[in-house]
Write a structure and sequence with these properties.
By secondary structure, the chain is of the alpha/beta class. It folds into 2 domains: about 5-20 and about 230-425, Alpha-beta prism (UDP-n-acetylglucosamine1-carboxyvinyl-transferase, Chain); about 25-215, Alpha-beta prism (UDP-n-acetylglucosamine1-carboxyvinyl-transferase, Chain), CATH 3.65.10. The chain has 12 helices and 25 strands. It has a 4-stranded mixed beta sheet with strand order 2-17-19-18. A hairpin with a 6-residue loop joins β18 and β19 (about 290-295). α3 packs parallel to α5 (about 170-180) and α7 (about 235-245) runs parallel beside α9 (about 320-325). The longest helix has 13 residues, at about 25-35. The structure holds ligand SPQ. Ligand SPQ binds near residues 23, 168, 316, 389 and 416. Ligand SPQ binds next to α1, α3 and α5.
Length: about 425
């Protein structure tokens, strides 16, 4: 097993980070480029392991995808009908987004395919996508209990109306991809608004999708056209620096090109609520995906409650919000976040277990956690458990901990942020 020695950093963190491309948007850019007609050019694509898995799957479906030295990705799409039966199993690696969204795309294709992934993927629930897609007419099978590997025999799909039992952008997106291939209009109702990158991209590629309250409507048979996509930086990656800056005394970090889509920016609201010194220096709200430059400086923080409709807006930031809460005055309650149990790891258990090793006052609840702060953390032997967000959270925790920290499985971080340690170290060098 690989380990990484992390030392505490008594100084401040100062400098600028250009945040790498958004993982959710990068996946979708390859998917839309592949199912549209013509060439799609993508800049600032995230070359993390998860998004590389998506590229590899579409190449196996016969799509030509070029990675240019300039960093631009070029996808030569021929519409849904341009996808061919793969000769090999489609391996999604660690990526839940890839497997679930691809199920929706493959559901409408008249061929057979098999999707598999790593150990973590094999534990994540897939019936949430398979059940509604089967209702639309796809033949989907899986291991007992609803786990990958998954087989899909697609074909003609019926449109339908479906109320999502859980707030999930992945389920919604899979159904939108299927709806684009179905006869008539598909209507999806969300219990709470989730990230809307798929809807935005349908429009960016020349299609239409309507949103009325919690209902999202899409017509089948639309002609999508290849286009240029500029991927903004990932706010979920920026979150680690936002928290590092907020909790390391004397810090001042500028984060450039951070995606500020309101369905993803819950971390900004929570930081403000907790009293962080956070400024939006500039922002472009008119782009297909809004983005801006943020400045975070350390400050005194206070505990808060995070729950309800806020949860889908920051679901992936909860591990780092838990660390933030260990440094805030008073109690922080995170609730309504039972979905954390079915991510790359059970993120309630892994966050609570690992932060306890470092001396945090944190307890798991059925749907979240309760954290009492502020607590001085100590270095410890901790593990990412193969979960990129747990790995990055622990690396940030090590900065403010007394003594050394050994992080097991640090390589998991390359799923979403291959240059994470380099970017973090650059902030330490400048004093
Ligand atoms: O792709 P994967 O592994 O599911 O990634 C995660 C993450 O932390 O990066 C979750 F584990 O993000 C999901 C997110 O939690 C990405 C996503 C998307 O791109 O649509 C949506 C969310 O998942 P869900 O299940 O709530 O739809």
């Amino acid at each position: 097993m690989k380990t990484r020695l992390l030392t505490s950093h008594s100084g401040s963190l100062v400098g600028t980070v250009a945040i790498p491309g958004d993982k959710s948007i990068s996946h979708r850019s390859v998917m839309f480029g592949s199912i549209s007609q013509g060439i799609t050019k993508v800049t600032n694509f995230l070359l993390g392991d998860d998004c590389l898995s998506t590229i590899s799957c579409f190449r196996k479906l016969g799509v030509k995808i070029e990675e240019h030295a300039s960093g631009e990705l070029r996808i030569y799409g021929s519409g849904f009908q341009g996808l061919n039966e793969p000769k090999e199993v489609l391996n999604v690696g660690n990526s839940g987004t890839t497997i679930r969204l691809m199920m929706g795309i493959l559901a409408g294709r008249d061929f057979f395919s098999v999707l598999e992934g790593d150990e973590s993927i094999a534990r994540r629930p897939m019936t949430r996508v398979a059940t509604p897609l089967s209702k639309m007419g796809a033949k989907i099978d899986f291991r007992n209990g609803g786990f990958a590997p998954i087989s899909v025999r697609g074909g003609a799909l019926n449109s339908f109306e479906y109320k999502l039992p859980v707030a999930s952008a992945q389920v919604k997106s899979a159904l939108l991809f299927a709806g684009l291939q179905a006869k008539g209009e598909t209507v999806i109702t969300e219990p709470e608004a989730t990230r809307d990158h798929t809807e935005r991209m349908i429009r960016q590629f020349g299609g239409t999708v309507e949103k009325e309250g919690n209902n999202i409507k899409v017509r089948g048979g639309q002609n999508l056209q290849g286009t240029s996509v500029r991927v903004p930086g990932d706010i979920s990656s920026a979150a680690f620096f936002l928290v590092a800056g907020a909790i390391s005394e004397g810090s001042s970090i500028t984060l450039e090109n951070v995606g500020l889509n309101p369905t993803r920016s819950g971390i900004v609201d929570v930081l403000n609520e907790m009293g962080a010194d956070l400024q939006i220096l500039s922002q472009d709200l008119d782009a297909a995906e809004p983005a801006g430059t943020l400045l975070i400086r350390s400050s005194r923080l206070k505990g808060t409650t995070v729950g309800g409709e806020m949860i889908p807006r920051l679901i992936d930031e909860i591990p780092i919000i838990a660390l933030l809460a260990t440094q805030a005055d008073g109690v922080t309650v995170i609730k309504d976040a039972g979905e954390l149990k079915v991510k790359e790891t059970n993120r309630i258990d892994t966050v609570v277990g690992e932060l306890k090793k470092m001396g945090a006052n944190i307890e798991a609840t059925d749907d979240g956690m309760i954290i009492q702060g502020p607590t001085a953390l100590q270095g410890a032997c901790v593990s990412s458990h193969g979960d990129h967000r747990i790995g990055m959270m622990l690396a940030v925790a090590s900065l403010i901990s007394e003594g050394e920290t050994i992080l097991e499985n640090p390589e998991a971080i390359s799923v979403s942020y291959p240059k994470f340690f380099e970017d973090l170290d650059n902030l330490k060098k400048i004093k």
